[in-house]
Amino acid sequence: MTVTETDRVANVANAVETSDRVASHLHPEGSWRVEDHPVPTGLEEIWRFTPLKRLRGLHADAPFGTGSVRTESSAPDGVSVRAVEGAEAADWRGISGFVPTDRASARVFAETAASLVVDVPAEAEPTEPVVLRLSGEGAQTAEAGHVAVRVGAHARVTVVLNHTGSAQLAQVVEFAVGDGAQVTVVTVQDWADDAVHLAQHQARVGRDASLKHVAVSFGGDLVRLNSAVSYAGPGGNAELLGLYFADAGQHLEHRLFVDHNAPHTISNVDYKGALQGRGAHTVWIGDVLIRKVAEGIETYESNRNLVLTDGCRADAVPNLEIETGDIAGAGHAATTGRFDDEQLFYLRSRGIAEDEARRLVVHGFFADIIRRIGVADVEERLLTAVEHELAVNIGLPTASAAGAGADA
């Protein structure tokens, strides 16, 4: 399958029409022209939490090089993964209806010639996930990349993006989910300590289709991930899950936008984060826009943060923008707190040592998100990563060490 010029024009026209109707103050009007997006100063509402100096110019005009981020992929039979350039790459840009709303995204499209495309045919049901491995080989040079994922009608597929190593990466990732398709996307930001990652994920969910988007951030000096969803017809369902663990000095920022632009659509946003170490900073901004046409929709967004040590900061801002009163339900919640004293007391009263009790509380905090991912390898990797964070950074024992201590 190829993207025709007619499709391209229709996608762009639809996106422009959509952006003209957006009433959200958190999402500026889109434009393909870089010059239409001024360099942020940090005073803008959508940039006020981000330490711009640590972005190393990715938000402005840092020159994009090549070769510092290596991409490898594995895909099951019937799924195409390939790099395209020039006019063919241009055909894939905007397949989600996305029109850049910031300077970095506009530059990705304007200043890079290649795209990595994943094409899943209609009614395909591969038993193995599509895995894209992006490995940074040096944070001295900025690089830009575009990934486009198109899933045909009534297909079922899982796509995993793994980010590791040292890099400065500006990135746009698009998902076009066909009618009746079921798609799971897992993006893991497990960068080295010096990495900077500025990313936009954009998805358009077809009629009666479902998308589960899971964002996991552990590594990196600064990670800012914008994830946005819109609908191509009624009956679409979007579940956006997130898990992050910030250490001393790290800035991890996740911004969510669900655009209910079709009736009888559903969205659920659920992010959880933990922080430890002086200067650890997390930001979660959730925004749901319910348009006048979006009658009968249902939505809920939630963010919970667990502070493990002193010197951390968690900013959480949920937003609902409602333009119609004819909805099935809408709500939001955000909390930040320390260990639950009642949980710790309950565990310790049953003979469990304090360190082990704290480890169990943290695991219980993340368990609900991890078990909903639905990708066994990823779930196991995340459990191991949580153990590592606890053992290395605040001295809590791993499961094996704790067990050995109890037996002794």
From TrEMBL:
Q: Which Pfam families match?
A: SUFBD_core
The Gene Ontology biological process annotation of the record reads: iron-sulfur cluster assembly
InterPro entries referenced in this protein's UniProt entry, alphabetically: Fe-S_cluster_assembly_SufBD (IPR055346), SUF_FeS_clus_asmbl_SufBD_core (IPR000825), SUF_FeS_clus_asmbl_SufBD_sf (IPR037284), SUF_FeS_clus_asmbl_SufD (IPR011542)
Indicate the segments forming the SUF system FeS cluster assembly SufBD core domain, all copies: 138-365
Family designation: Belongs to the iron-sulfur cluster assembly SufBD family.
What is the official name of this protein in its record? Fe-S cluster assembly protein SufD
List the source organism.
Answer: Microlunatus kandeliicorticis
Q: What is the lineage of its organism?
A: Bacteria, Bacillati, Actinomycetota, Actinomycetes, Propionibacteriales
